Amino acid sequence: MTEVVAVVGTCAPERASFARRFAEHTDRSLHTAARIAMSPDPVDEALSLAPWSGDRGAVIEFPPTVPPTEIIGRFAEPDSPARLVGITCVVDATHIVDDLLREDYVVQRFSSGRVHRARALATATQVEYASTIVMAGWEQLSTPDLSLMMALVSALAPRARLQLHPFQGIAREVPVPQPDAQDRPGWICLLNDDHAPHMTDDRVSAIRYQSTRLFHPVRLRRLLDEELERGAFGTVLRSVGFCRLATRPGTTAHWEHVGSMFSLPPVAVDEDLGADDEMLAVGQDIAFIGLDVDAAALTRALDDACLTDEEFAAGPVVWRTLSDPFPAWATA
């Protein structure tokens, strides 16, 4: 079966340059993002092209609109004609923080339409699910700044190998077991109490927040809009996890934040759980990663956004009557 290394990244020139040099160095066939992005389903196109490389193996450069979880999942299907042995994410070391704060979208256009994805979210998830992270443009940084950026990337993806590009040598990818691939993100490691990044820096923070109290929607909205977004606790670049709103007590929501973008979709309803199913979270369980973050102040602010003793004692009937500024969730 053909072995494939996927190359991802939101900085197109750096991604393309690395993919070409990596394919040449490892004597693999190269399928470029420009080629597979012509299809409305780039992963399907990649799966069709990969077997032509045979035992030689292939390097497939993916457009940034393709989520890494889709690449991992589709290549892991039983009838997949190729095996994914690694995901290499190429980042520009000089503006990785800016990329995580951007508010624009990456767009893929094809004959029958187009798809788009938030650039900041694409950057974060590609880093998080990578088995190898290649840092381009590192020569322009001072030693302390390079150390800081490597520590930040390592916090986001603690199980990934870090390499600098341009480079003197490239190691072949080691096959990545699929369960391990799904557990690679730093936020998942934090929630599992298994966050051990290869590189650290005093300015890089990785914090796990837990509380059995539900969030008061109004106070949470105020915290997000008036404090977190303006950097009251430092620069929180990424936060992900699970939480509950007091007005919707029987539903667990997925807290998804990167830069200035935030979403809170429902992921599990208590009454739908089977006898052997486990709740994702009783209250709040959220990972925060950023720069110069005041962990104590952030924790206090999150605690203040939860129900008070008096509000908690009032019970779910009263909770549901509280004002709720968050969008309604679609119901089946």
Structural summary, described in words:
With 332 residues, the protein is α/β, with parallel strands linked by helices. It folds into two domains: 2-191, 3-Layer(aba) Sandwich (Rossmann fold), CATH 3.40.50; 204-319, Hypothetical Protein Yjia, Chain: A,domain 2 (2-Layer Sandwich). 33% of the residues lie in helices and 26% in strands. The chain contains 13 helices and 14 strands. The protein has helices spanning 12-26, 33-36, 42-49, 68-75, 96-101, 119-128, 143-156, 178-182, 186-191, 217-228, 295-305, 309-314, 316-319, and strands spanning 2-8, 29-31, 58-61, 82-92, 105-110, 113-118, 132-136, 161-165, 204-211, 235-243, 251-258, 261-263, 266-269, 284-291. It has a six-stranded parallel sheet with strand order 2-3-1-4-7-8, sandwiched between helices. Helix 10 packs antiparallel against helix 11.
Radius of gyration: 21 Å
Looking at CATH, the homologous superfamily of the largest domain is P-loop containing nucleotide triphosphate hydrolases
Strand order of the largest sheet: 2-3-1-4-7-8
> In percent, how helical is the residue content?
25-40%
User: What's the story with the biggest beta sheet?
Assistant: 6 strands, parallel
Q: What is the approximate shape?
A: globular
Quick structural gist:
The chain is α/β, with parallel strands linked by helices and 332 residues long.
Looking at this protein, list some descriptive labels.
6-stranded antiparallel β-sheet, alpha/beta, 332 residues, Rossmann fold, Hypothetical Protein Yjia, Chain: A,domain 2
